[in-house]
Specification:
9 strands; seven-stranded mixed β-sheet; Rossmann fold; two-stranded antiparallel ribbon; 10 helices; 298 residues; 46% helix; alpha/beta; 2 domains; single chain
Length: 298
């Protein structure tokens, strides 16, 4: 019910969100007579903040079309190397028109970047991919929002996560592969590689695990403390909710993104409040400077 109420609230809020966007532009545009009114900068900045808080954010694109290598620019094409119900394995293929560069690219090591599944989009690692492309053949996991996966595809649990990673490694080829897992996927990636090794399969040449809680006893956080003091049934009853209609995954039990976001904010509310207040202040300064520059204020 909580997920349904959240979606209903967003639907009710949508008209006000877009109205706030219009008001922000009306009071902030340097050619508008409204921008000359007293307090126009504050009105514009406040509405812009409201719009940013209430709007829907589409999944961003990688938009990596070129890479610079040793002073030369080469085209990059984003390809879907493998498509699964809950994830796309993307390959950023570099192209060259001279034999020396083609051979150099072929000799570069291959790397699989395993991005976090929940709470983020893989494009969070856009700069990481762009940097690696200078001297690597790069693949990355592009996870699909679980609410957009048809319910008929079934659930996606930790064991499925591990199996996906294993399949991706086999598809690319483990012998010359290096794997980088960032934050959340460190545990399933370690499990996948360990299981492959236990079965006598080829494993990646190296495994880099960045920012992931491999041993949760070390450097415990508030999240660790919560996991210790709350029973499993509490997490299931409080954090797991069915996807509402009309999403394709309606009925699938998930940990909604808005609850994850609330959890992040609750861990450091002062910092988040300060960030939003600074955004508002910067908006005020921007509008004032713009209107003064174009001679609207007198």
């Amino acid at each position: 019910m909580l997920y349904q109420m959240h979606e209903l609230g967003r639907a009710w809020l949508a008209p006000m969100t877009y109205w706030a966007d219009a008001m922000s532009k009306a009071f902030g545009a340097h050619g508008s007579w409204l921008s000359a009114m007293p307090g126009a900068a504050q009105v514009s900045a406040g509405n812009e903040l409201f719009y940013r808080l209430g709007k829907d954010y589409e999944k961003p694109e990688f938009r990596i079309t070129t890479v610079e290598v040793e002073g030369r620019e080469f085209p990059v094409v984003e390809q879907v190397a493998l498509r699964k119900p809950f994830c796309r394995l993307l390959h950023f293929k570099r192209f060259a028109d001279d034999r020396a560069s083609v051979e150099a690219f072929a000799d570069d090591p291959t790397v699989l970047v395993v991005a976090p599944l929940s709470g983020h989009h893989a494009t969070l690692l856009r700069d990481t991919v762009r940097t690696l492309l200078r001297d690597h053949d790069v693949y990355i996991t592009d996870w699909v929002d679980a609410r957009m996966v048809p319910a008929g595809e079934g659930p996606f649990h930790l064991d499925d996560y591990v199996l996906y990673v294993e399949e991706f490694i086999r598809h690319i080829g483990a012998e010359q592969l290096h794997v980088i897992s960032v934050c959340q996927p460190t545990v399933p990636v370690l499990a996948a590689v360990s299981l492959m090794a236990a079965r006598g399969e080829a494993t990646p040449r190296s495994l880099v695990m960045m920012g992931g809680p491999i041993d949760t006893r070390e450097n415990p956080t508030k999240v660790n403390d919560l996991a210790v003091y709350k029973p499993m049934w509490w997490f299931e009853s409080q954090l797991i909710h069915p996807v509402p209609a009309p999403y394709p995954g309606a009925g699938r039990r998930v940990y909604p993104g808005f609850l994850q976001h609330m959890g992040f904010v609750a861990m450091n509310p002062e910092r988040h409040f300060q960030s939003h207040y600074e955004f508002y202040e910067h908006g005020v300064v921007f509008v004032v400077e713009a209107t003064m520059r174009f001679g609207v204020l007198h």
